[in-house]
């Protein structure tokens, strides 16, 4: 657990912050600029006044366990009711949202909880949250928590409201899903609003296979909900997240029409979030972690002699693993929407090879070794290609959302190393370089290369818990029951998310590479979820000009797969709820019962993301 920058206090109590005898009973976090008061019982409670205002605020009152302090550094007009509404959550009253109205005397919360900010000596900005979100958002999401309607949902818990709840990490049900013949999602912004951009977060943004990303769609706007104007039309999309800037327009209603819901034959549309912004999307902030690092042979027994890593880049396992430490300046570029961008650069090895992206968190000044524990971001598979395939010699994978890891990557108190673990198999007797007469070892010994970047548009919210507990990372499991050790946690608010990646491998006849399975997830012995590793590879055939086309076809019938060449392996997220006072132990049950063929494994990664 790390200390957030600001304060939220829980407890049913009324107090004057200037009266030490009536201080709040429990402080969850404190500010480095705080002042300390002390209750009659002697427990310290800390009140943050804001670093730009030496004067104490006016008398505050609160009920039902909610209390916010507003720093006085910005203009009151900036603290819009919309921004307050979208930001408010309380660990004392979890999972509730509250509506606010801005008045001349402060902010009034209208809900079952009667909270009044009765007096305000100066401007009201910077609502303090349990995760430390402060300041006024530069681009408001006008659709957040607004009334949403849509075509018939796949399930009762996958209705339109899930696409405007501000979350993509609540598991596979944290989305709007519809299999209706005409698929659409509509949001009422409440009044005519100025619109500059739309953001659509498709299936891959929530951890589902990218083959479920919406392929063709359009966005329409309306003043009255009846007459519609098309603002955006998209064809042949494959990205997890799409951003669409528009010339400034005014509308009350927005509508997302999903004309081709997936990359293949699956008929269900999956939208994890539909955002409407009042300002244009910010430019990308890119941290280029690794740039075309070579992937040497996985079977070689000596270190490469034809390649020297750039300064600061560590090379392990005879040129198949690389890692680099993020600088403070690079950490400052990481935002709440950080994503991982992986690029494949073909060379000699035309076959599909397994790899993973990972990070290591260490105390300042401590360098990792090849055996230092790590957490896996995502697994991925190289396509069938080579350096003679023109434009198809390069494959930029869809950005993999890493927002649950944003605080960990930007942690100012730790050294963060980010890397790739992969490898290739060149010089096996019939690879592309040998067929083209290439003998220069600097080329011939390299199967392909990878680049890795962290990409953000947003800023980073202050105060989030950066701790990630890695229980398994790319672990080659050989049994159908996979169990982690029991661990403790330090989650600030006693809540956390489970991240799971698993897929079967084994190329021999009957190997787990040629199947898929259902996987059950248990938390402390109780089942909390099941999911299928089934995937349709049809949309990935285009990235493998050297591949056997049969691999990418009939995956829903006679040719099952749990991963695809040229694709990411989904990382799935599950809400663990209240974990206060619990140790954490997890089990995965693989539906394909062991024993499997001798070369078959289920590469498995399991992490707990604290909040």
Automatic annotation (TrEMBL):
<dbReference type="Pfam" id="PF00754">
    <property type="entry name" value="F5_F8_type_C"/>
</dbReference>
<dbReference type="Pfam" id="PF09113">
    <property type="entry name" value="N-glycanase_C"/>
</dbReference>
<feature type="region of interest" description="Disordered">
    <location>
        <begin position="12"/>
        <end position="41"/>
    </location>
</feature>
<dbReference type="InterPro" id="IPR000421">
    <property type="entry name" value="FA58C"/>
</dbReference>
<dbReference type="InterPro" id="IPR008979">
    <property type="entry name" value="Galactose-bd-like_sf"/>
</dbReference>
<dbReference type="GO" id="GO:0016715">
    <property type="term" value="F:oxidoreductase activity, acting on paired donors, with incorporation or reduction of molecular oxygen, reduced ascorbate as one donor, and incorporation of one atom of oxygen"/>
</dbReference>
<feature type="domain" description="F5/8 type C">
    <location>
        <begin position="130"/>
        <end position="279"/>
    </location>
</feature>
<protein>
    <recommendedName>
        <fullName>F5/8 type C domain-containing protein</fullName>
    </recommendedName>
</protein>
<dbReference type="InterPro" id="IPR014784">
    <property type="entry name" value="Cu2_ascorb_mOase-like_C"/>
</dbReference>
<dbReference type="InterPro" id="IPR015197">
    <property type="entry name" value="PngaseF_C"/>
</dbReference>
